[in-house]
Design a protein that fits this description.
Length: 520
């Protein structure tokens, strides 16, 4: 349930787009709980409090953790037990999550706690929401999770700030900079929480770190997939390719959803093309285009189908209870389980990386078609004075380097496992590894598609006064408003960065929309 600057969490209805909106903070979105969710949190907590007073062992409340689950902890030590859990599990290493990834992590953890199956106190959850709303971001190292009992180490670093430990990044309104967790709370007029029974475990059990990194990677991948269709259309026009392989009757008899979608996009982008009209008829020497042009619906489309699977998986996961144990207040039971296991997310995010590599690989092959004069019929490396100028020679090399590295990163993490916790956690998902790989590959994919757009725009410039189809034309004009044609060599990395920015900010998609062309 949302408004333009407000989001109410119920644990069941959060969307990927709402995550993106909270993460972007343009404008800042105030996050709170629905009244019904708050009641559910109170009910689960009441059950935990009742069981904490009893003498029989209940995992997560009055026992140790993992292999130490059989050790009974006295009532007087339960607060120490929960604090020690956070301190001992904060073992992350490496570069911290980015601010957008950290915001997503905080929102997702708040959402799962709002479901009412974790047993946390509402006051502890409110403190987490306060940090999110104030944009006080815990420093969360990116490495250290195997996706066993979820993302234990990253979530422990998130929880550190709640208890006045760890470090956080402050917004400018509070002075900015990286400070201790206690100082961050003090600057905001907040007090650290003293964790009660089950609360430490409620804060660290779950798949929210892999979800946070993976969700943002998926959203980037979906945007890049749309722009891959545009880049391919740019290149097709620049190379005088045929539009006929995109006819609907072809794809109707092999009706994969992604394939049909991409073919539809290409038809819209290429409609009313003077370039295409110029090389049709008996005088056209070409019989068939290379696969990198002719098979765009099949290759881009299979990537779209993989991304659609990943989206469905994450839409389920972000609204799932992933704690262990789970608190069923209505039945008065607390049950140990395996919902924390990250295998569904790990597998989905491996597919995200693979899908992006498909898009990058075929894009790089189209780049070769553009810069190779024996294939393009255009000047070598798309420069008018080749030899003196090298043109886009090394832009294609950069694209090839990114594709090569991404192919290595696309090796699946979800089929790997490494036992931990003295054999108790004997099969793990490597979900955070899959998420981090996916994030890197999607970043590279944006760069590769930007390079193709830039290079193909040069080919379109060389084809003037012939003009491309209406969609390609609108995007080309927008691109040219920020990046002029290259008449002699200059620092191409600046142009590459400018086009990548146009992708990331949606500038090119808005240009298509203004021209009445929708790319889905």
């Amino acid at each position: 349930m949302t408004s333009s600057a407000h989001l109410l969490l119920d644990g069941d209805t959060l969307t990927l787009e709402e995550i993106a909106r909270v993460v972007a903070r343009t404008p800042a979105v105030h996050v709170d709980l629905t009244p019904a969710a708050r009641e559910g949190v109170h009910a689960a907590r009441a059950l935990v409090d009742r069981l904490a007073e009893k003498t029989e062992p209940v995992y997560g409340i009055n026992t140790g953790f993992g292999t130490l689950a059989e050790i009974r902890i006295p009532r007087g030590d339960l607060r120490t037990l929960q604090r020690n859990l956070i301190l001992s599990h904060a073992c992350g290493v490496g570069a911290p999550l980015t601010p957008p990834q950290t915001r997503a992590l905080m929102l997702l953890r708040a959402n799962v706690l709002a479901k009412g199956y974790s047993g946390i106190r509402a006051s502890t959850l409110d403190l987490l929401l306060s940090l999110l709303n104030l944009d006080i971001l815990p420093i969360v190292p990116s490495r250290g999770s195997v996706g066993a009992s979820g993302d234990l180490a990253p979530l422990a670093h998130l929880a550190l700030v709640l208890i006045g430990e760890g470090e956080a990044l402050l917004p400018l309104e509070l002075g900015g900079g990286r400070v201790s967790g206690r100082e961050a709370l003090s600057r905001a007029g907040l007090a650290p929480v003293v964790l009660e029974a089950k609360e430490g475990l409620a804060l660290v059990n779950g798949t929210q770190a892999m979800q946070a990194v993976g969700t943002l990677a998926l959203l980037d991948a979906e945007r890049t997939a749309r722009m891959a269709d545009l880049a391919g259309a740019f290149t097709l026009e620049g190379l005088l390719g045929s539009h006929h392989p995109f006819e609907d009757r072809i794809h109707a008899i092999r009706p994969h959803e992604g394939q049909r979608l991409v073919a539809t996009n290409l038809r819209a982008l290429l409609a009313d093309s003077p370039i295409h009209a110029s090389h049709q008829g008996p005088g056209c020497a070409k019989v068939q285009d290379p696969y990198s042009l002719r098979c765009m619906p099949q290759v881009h489309g299979s990537a779209r189908d993989a991304l659609a699977f990943a989206r469905r998986t994450l839409e389920i996961e972000i609204n799932s209870a992933t704690d262990n144990p789970l608190v069923f207040a209505d039945a008065g039971e607390i049950i140990s389980n395996g919902n924390f296991h990250g295998q569904p997310v790990s597998q989905a995010l491996d597919l995200v990386a693979m899908a992006c590599v498909q898009l990058m690989s075929i894009s790089e092959r189209r780049m070769e078609q553009l810069v190779n004069p024996s294939l393009s019929g255009l000047p070598p490396f798309l420069t008018k004075n080749s030899g003196l100028n090298s043109g886009y020679m090394i832009a294609q090399v950069t694209s090839a380097a990114l594709v090569a590295e991404s192919r290595i990163l696309a090796h699946p993490a979800c089929v790997d496992t490494i036992p931990s916790s003295a054999g108790r956690e004997d099969h793990v998902s490597m979900g955070m590894t899959a998420a981090l790989k996916a994030a890197t590959v999607t970043e590279f994919a944006t760069q590769v598609i930007a390079i193709e757009l830039l290079t193909a725009a040069q080919a379109l410039w060389l084809r003037l006064p012939l003009l491309p189809g209406v969609g390609v034309r609108a995007a080309y004009e927008t691109l040219r408003a920020g990046v002029p044609p290259m008449e002699s060599d200059r620092e191409i990395h600046r142009d590459m960065a400018a086009v990548a920015k146009m992708i990331e900010t949606g500038t090119l998609e808005r240009a298509l929309g203004a021209a009445g062309v929708e790319v889905k």
